[in-house]
């Protein structure tokens, strides 16, 4: 791939990540600006410090926003914003 | 224990390996290990202005940090560069700060230099030290070693407790995504507690610990903050509370954030060799950044590292080139901790 093609591919993922961040900040009423959250930021415990009640809220929000049901998923899908992006848009598919 | 390899990390001499990196790493990720964290310096902040001082010096909000809580935070200089990453423990008469490995001298100098509140700043490393436990079954070790009730403390909860008639500060913490605990113990009792811990688990050195930290993007200050880089470029935003009214370095961090300029950090894997820090990263033949650091990953069976590249290329799933070898950028965490699927019983 050329560098411009790589930038375009990166932009696609960054766009999905940005959408997820806005959704999380809005649905969980967080004070932080969405862009302050990094794509690799952990969501539970460390990082955004979300809890199990927040997970339930996110299940509903993700299904409403992206049409993807994650109810039976392992906690690993919440390992980071970028990991969540892989789940809501499998075309990105870059899970380690 | 005759094969222990020690190394100098900043101002501390620490065990890098007790036996074998691969073995220690696997035990950390599969069962539990003991960690000699004596290279972490403990600094006591006390006096009437202690909380105000800490609130101004730490990048996260510690105003209501009680003696039953601890919190990880960055300490920044006026230019927004990382001085250290600390674990702050609330105490009755102030706070106790635990430096990252080998960074105590640098942290202490910085704290004293910005001590406008005239608080008392005391290096406690002569009389207190830290022993850690980490791994998916570390909670079981806590039960056998001290008290099973402590194992299920919430993340970053702290309990003053007693082990073998010795008062210790016990905390649920963690650096690797696995269940993690720390025991702050008087130096004169540390050897006894270490020996007692080793009746239940084997020890792990700094190399296995840092590999596991990298895999979950837990910042490793000594490897990630060299040079003229800011918090945004490191990607350690979550260790800064940008909504807080004021703290040292806030203006510089905000300026860097709002500029949307600079580089960003992304993980990568691939290649048969381990590139040195500073090795160039190419995208489509163009130079777009450099390697921050890289290691051989036991879990992935390949090279794993961090690269700092132009912001528009800091995303997972890209095929880049480092020193002629193809690498792929990654989604964090690079290894899913086993603890995420194992409940504390």
Automatic annotation (TrEMBL), chain A:
Gene3D superfamilies in the record: ACP-like
InterPro entries, per the entry: ACP-like_sf, PP-bd_ACP
Pfam families in UniProt: PP-binding (PF00550)
Domain Carrier: 14-92
Superkingdom of the organism of origin: Bacteria
Record's protein name: Acyl carrier protein
UniProtKB/TrEMBL annotation, chain B:
Keywords: Transferase
GO MF terms held by the record: transferase activity
InterPro entries, A to Z: GcvT/YgfZ/DmdA, GcvT/YgfZ_C, GcvT_C, GCVT_N, TrmE/GcvT-like
Domain GCVT N-terminal: 8-244
Pfam families, A to Z: GCV_T, GCV_T_C
Superkingdom field: Bacteria
Residues of the Aminomethyltransferase C-terminal domain: 263-327
Protein name from the UniProt record: Aminomethyl transferase family protein
Origin organism lineage: Bacteria, Bacillati, Actinomycetota, Actinomycetes, Streptosporangiales
